[in-house]
Design brief:
This is Mycoredoxin. The chain is of the alpha+beta class. The protein contains three helices and four strands, in the order E-H-E-H-E-E-H. A four-stranded mixed sheet has the order 2-1-3-4, with helices on one face. Helix 1 (about 10-25) links the parallel strand 1 and strand 2 (about 25-30). The chain is globular and about 35 Å long.
Length: about 80
């Protein structure tokens, strides 16, 4: 399952969650304003910035503010591997 790092006020996060729901993609959401370790992770993959949405995949890779097309391509790649 993928993890989406988010905030409650992020419009891009809300849009991506809706797209995940529509596409049937399972995910968990972690609010970086409530979990300091999550905020540190997001900073570590975004040059020190708390940029959301940041999506972490099961293979440990991450994408920042990805499109649904990018996420679906990454998930399809993981299935082929």
């Amino acid at each position: 399952m993928i993890t989406m790092y988010s905030t409650t006020w992020c419009g891009y996060c809300h849009r991506l969650k809706s797209q995940f729901d529509r596409e049937g993609i399972q995910y968990q959401v972690v609010d970086i304003e409530r979990e300091s370790e999550a905020a540190k992770y997001v900073e570590s993959v975004n040059g020190g910035n708390q940029t959301v949405p940041t999506v972490r995949f099961d293979d440990g890779t991450a994408m920042t503010n990805p499109t649904i097309v990018q996420v679906k391509a990454k998930l399809a790649e993981a299935v082929r591997s």
